[in-house]
Structures are given as structure tokens and as C-alpha cells.
């Protein structure tokens, strides 16, 4: 069973990524007023603002933990899960998260969130039982919690459940059960060769029944009037689900933001459809969202948004939502100061020189504001 500690590292890097969102300067004051009045979700939002240093707030890990704790103590599952993560990581990294590493404390908070049904925290509790992190090692409890997460559609937990049953690790080897879990998350595997036609048919029937009970996230309802601006917190939480390979949640969150006009969300949603992550693979739906992303990002890139420029470059490089064009990809990478490399031999030296000349002319005509800095 893989412990996947690399996910912890990726999450820390993830939190530092830039976003395209509306930073309403009044948002912090509004949330603070609600948080001080006892609103648990506002307290969690305040914790996020202090953790990431957004909405004009200076980054303050200690203040962040104070507000997360207030929300968690009121029963806010997402705040409880965050406290679990903070104590699990602790001061193992240079910046830290405002508390010292404490596996017992981490288990306590993760368990509270898991009891409320959070699939990501249920999976984490399962792994903590498997490894003996903050609790006595107990494979049976580990399997129980991993299956709870997998039953909710958590892609990573489904894949890990498939691995356990296929290899006979911590459970009795069961190829039919492995095939069932692998099928739910569309993971490549060879378990079918170990099954009789009757066993495979029975497993396929279980898969169909599960999918009927857990339909893919539906499209967002129509918005009447101007849509609410996409906030930085919303886009980060969608990215977190994607980074943690909770693709069904990522689809749901990115769809809501895509419908409200977020170019990044439209791009991510298109890629999820393209690769069949969290939803059935659908090239037509993927093409629709990638095209919308291009229409959203192109004007932003032309206005000098370096985030959009980098994403636009990637779309041209991969041919997503637009015809593949390496010269155009290099141009947008260059004007956005993106340290990205095209495939070797994608352009001739003459083509690269022409792009460099065009990018230099663009930068001359669009000087960056004197105070603007990349974070």
C-alpha cells in the first residue's frame, strides 16, 4: 500500500500557486465580522486568508490556526480536516503551518472530520491505521475507512482499494473485488483475466448499480443576473481537490466556477472530460469547455495577465481548445515570462528568432506597471 507522502509536498506547493480571481478588499472585513459573531464557515475562511496572505491580509500562520481551531471546535468538518493536515505536517517543512508536528493530534482532528463523512479525511484515517500514525496499527480499521472513502467515489481511495484486493495486502486476495474498485475509477489493471465470465458479469453489475446511485455531477443551474465573482478561496479549493486526485469533487467545483466565467476552471473542466477523470470520458464536452476557456483566456492574455498568458501558451502547445501551434505557444510563454520548454525540435532556430522578435515588440508596447511583481 503506497503511503503517497508526496501528496503532502504537492499540497504545500499547491497553496503557493497564483490564481485568477476577484480579490474584493471588503471581503475580509465582511468575513471577519461574521467570524467574530460565531459563524464557523466564516472562521474557516478567515483561517485561509491568514494562511495564504490574501485579500490584503498579511500571512500569519498562528492567527490562521486560531481561526481554523475556532471553526473546528464548532464542528466544521473542513476546518477539522485542515487541523489534522496541519498537525500531520507540522514543522516538517521550513515555513510550517503554525503548529508542531503531532500525529496523535492529527489523528484526532482527521477522525472528527472523517466521522462527518469527508472522503479525503476518511482515506487519510485509513492510511494512519495502516501505518500506525498517531494510533495503534490496525489493518481492519484501515480497510474499513478506506472503503468508506471509496464508496463515496473518491478516485484515489478506489484505486488503493483495488490495489489491496489485487495484491492481497491487508485483506484476503480477491480479484473480483479488485476488479470492481478498479472499474469504478477506470484504473488500468489486469484483474479481469483472473475472473470467470460469471464473476466478471457480477462485478460489472455492481459497478453499474454503484454508478446509478452516484451519478456524475450535474451541470450548474442557470444563473439569473450577473454571476458572482469567482473568489480566490473557491479556485484554490477546487485545485486542492484536483491535486489530491479527488476528481469527482474537482469536477463539481470546477464546473460551478466555469459556469461563472473562470477561464482556469473552464480549462481544468475540459481536461477532466478529456481524460475521463471524475466523469465519463467525453471528447465533445471536453472540446466545448476547452473552447470556452480559450475564449475567456485570450482577451486576458492580450491585456497582460501573465497567468492567462501561461495557460494560453499551454493550450497552443497541447492543441487544447485551439489548433496546435508551437510558435504561438512560445510567444505566450515568452510574454508571460513562463519558464516552459517546448518539445525538442518543435521549432527551427529561425522560427524561434521570429517569435522572440515578436515577443520583444509586444513587451515594448505593453510595459509592466512599475509596482507589479510576480509572487
CATH architecture of one domain, by name, is: Alpha Horseshoe
What is the averaged pLDDT score? 83
The oligomeric state is single chain
Low-confidence stretches: 1-22, 222-226, 370-375
How many helices does DSSP assign?
18
Q: Strand pairing plus helix content: what structural class?
A: mainly alpha
**C-alpha Rg (nearest Å):** 23 Å
How would you describe the shape? globular
Report the end-to-end length measured between terminal Cα atoms: 37 Å
- CATH class call of one domain: Mainly Alpha
Q: What does the main sheet amount to?
A: none
CATH topology grouping of one domain: Serine Threonine Protein Phosphatase 5, Tetratricopeptide repeat
Report the count of strand segments: 0
Strand percent estimate: under 5%
Order of helical and strand elements: HHHHHHHHHHHHHHHHHH
Question: In percent, how helical is the residue content?
Answer: 55-70%
Secondary structure elements and their pairing?
Elements (H helix, E strand, L loop, with lengths): L5 H10 L11 H10 L3 H13 L8 H13 L3 H13 L13 H13 L3 H13 L7 H13 L3 H13 L7 H10 L12 H17 L18 H12 L3 H13 L3 H13 L7 H20 L3 H13 L7 H10 L13 H17 L10
Helix pairs in contact: 1-12, 2-3, 3-4, 4-5, 5-6, 6-7, 7-8, 8-9, 9-10, 10-11, 12-13, 13-14, 14-15, 15-16, 16-17, 17-18
Structure description:
This protein is an all-alpha fold and 375 residues long. Among the domains are: 1-116, Tetratricopeptide repeat domain (Serine Threonine Protein Phosphatase 5, Tetratricopeptide repeat, Alpha Horseshoe); 232-365, Serine Threonine Protein Phosphatase 5, Tetratricopeptide repeat, CATH 1.25.40. 63% of the residues lie in helices and 0% in strands. It has 18 helices and no strands. It has helices at 6-15, 27-36, 40-52, 61-73, 77-89, 103-115, 119-131, 139-151, 155-167, 175-184, 197-213, 232-243, 247-259, 263-275, 283-302, 306-318, 326-335, 349-365. The longest helix is centred in the last third of the chain and has 20 residues, at 283-302. The chain is globular and about 65 Å long. Residues 1-22, 222-226 and 370-375 have low confidence and may be disordered.
Amino acid at each position: 500500500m503506497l503511503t503517497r507522502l508526496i501528496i503532502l509536498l504537492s499540497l504545500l506547493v499547491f497553496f503557493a500557486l497564483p490564481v485568477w480571481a476577484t480579490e474584493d478588499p471588503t471581503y475580509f472585513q465582511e468575513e471577519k465580522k461574521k467570524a467574530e459573531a460565531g459563524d464557523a464557515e466564516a472562521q474557516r475562511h478567515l483561517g485561509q486568508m491568514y494562511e495564504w496572505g490574501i485579500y490584503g491580509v498579511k500571512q500569519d500562520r498562528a492567527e490562521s490556526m486560531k481561526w481554523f481551531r475556532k471553526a473546528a471546535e464548532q464542528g466544521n468538518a473542513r476546518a477539522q480536516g485542515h487541523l489534522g493536515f496541519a498537525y500531520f505536517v507540522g514543522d516538517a517543512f521550513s515555513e510550517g503551518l503554525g503548529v508542531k508536528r503531532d500525529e496523535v493530534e492529527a489523528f484526532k482532528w482527521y477522525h472528527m472530520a472523517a466521522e462527518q463523512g469527508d472522503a479525503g479525511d476518511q482515506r487519510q484515517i485509513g492510511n494512519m491505521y495502516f501505518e500506525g500514525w498517531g494510533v495503534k496499527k490496525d489493518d481492519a480499521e484501515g480497510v474499513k475507512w478506506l472503503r468508506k472513502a471509496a464508496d463515496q467515489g473518491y478516485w484515489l481511495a478506489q484505486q488503493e482499494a483495488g490495489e489491496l484486493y489485487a495484491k492481497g495486502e491487508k485483506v484476503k486476495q480477491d480479484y473480483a473485488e479488485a476488479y470492481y474498485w478498479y472499474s469504478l475509477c477506470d484504473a488500468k489493471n489486469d484483474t479481469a483475466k483472473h475472473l470467470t465470465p460469471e464473476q466478471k458479469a457480477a462485478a460489472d453489475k455492481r459497478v453499474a448499480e454503484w454508478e446509478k446511485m452516484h451519478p456524475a455531477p450535474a451541470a450548474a443551474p442557470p444563473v439569473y443576473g450577473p454571476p458572482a465573482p469567482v473568489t480566490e478561496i473557491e479556485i484554490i479549493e477546487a485545485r486542492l481537490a484536483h491535486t489530491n486526485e479527488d476528481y469527482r469533487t474537482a469536477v463539481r467545483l470546477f464546473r460551478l466556477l466555469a459556469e461563472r466565467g473562470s477561464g482556469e476552471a473552464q480549462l481544468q473542466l475540459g481536461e477532466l472530460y478529456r481524460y475521463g477523470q471524475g466523469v465519463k470520458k467525453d471528447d465533445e464536452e471536453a472540446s466545448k469547455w476547452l473552447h470556452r476557456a480559450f475564449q475567456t483566456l485570450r482577451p486576458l492574455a492580450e491585456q497582460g495577465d501573465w497567468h492567462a498568458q501561461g495557460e494560453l501558451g499551454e493550450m497552443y502547445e497541447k492543441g487544447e481548445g485551439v489548433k496546435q501551434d508551437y510558435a504561438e505557444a512560445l510567444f505566450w510563454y515568452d510574454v508571460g515570462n513562463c519558464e516552459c520548454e517546448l518539445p525538442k525540435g518543435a521549432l527551427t532556430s529561425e522560427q524561434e528568432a521570429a517569435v522572440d522578435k515578436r515577443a520583444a515588440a509586444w513587451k515594448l508596447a505593453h510595459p509592466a506597471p512599475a509596482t507589479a511583481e510576480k509572487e
